[in-house]
Please model this.
Amino acid sequence: AQSVTQLDSQVPVFEEAPVELRCNYSSSVSVYLFWYVQYPNQGLQLLLKYLSGSTLVKGINGFEAEFNKSQTSFHLRKPSVHISDTAEYFCAVSAHSSNTGKLIFGQGTTLQVKP
Amino acid sequence: EADIYQTPRYLVIGTGKKITLECSQTMGHDKMYWYQQDPGMELHLIHYSYGVNSTEKGDLSSESTVSRIRTEHFPLTLESARPSHTSQYLCASSGGSGASSTDTQYFGPGTRLTVL
Model:
């Protein structure tokens, strides 16, 4: 079984400041890792995913994440945030062996960018 | 452009009513999913489908049922709505030539259901 823990429920930050949203996972099998973003009144949209290769993954809108297998973490970062980045961010995993594509989500982190 | 639609976006209904939440996608994806999302909580998978005439229950027990008669359509039905069904319901689809576990899931905008 897999589980995902997002360590911060809310992250307030000023515009143009850097931000890190933390994600840790637990799994007895190898997993793929995802970050999704949900803007107000919209569905989830993929930011980035780690499948294999380089542990630093670049996504859309200037976001990047680093997979750390020893710490079972997949933290999301952006060097300079904009007001438009205000949204809910979800970390998720899927098991390598899954034939359903089922995603296990964390509880979400609300990023609040202040002017 | 990924297109997946859900209707209605908002629904307020009385206890005991039968409701159907619609989900359609135009991408030809074989896999479709229903998630339930409560405020401040993670999404929980309640149903999924591999393709036409294939449906399975997800991790979270749900009194809802689904059907998959056409590739593009994956409706969710509650025979008798109760206040405990109040939640947001998100539909998603995915498809690709590789393993399902690497696929990107594309989400609809959700239906926010309130049962009085």
User: Anything to note?
Assistant: Residues 67 and 114 of chain B are 22 Å apart (CA to CA). Chain B has a mean pLDDT of 90. The interface with chain A takes residues 4, 6, 31, 33, 40-45, 48, 50, 56, 58-59, 90, 92, 94, 99-110 of chain B (CB under 8 Å). Chain B is about 0% helix and 45% strand.
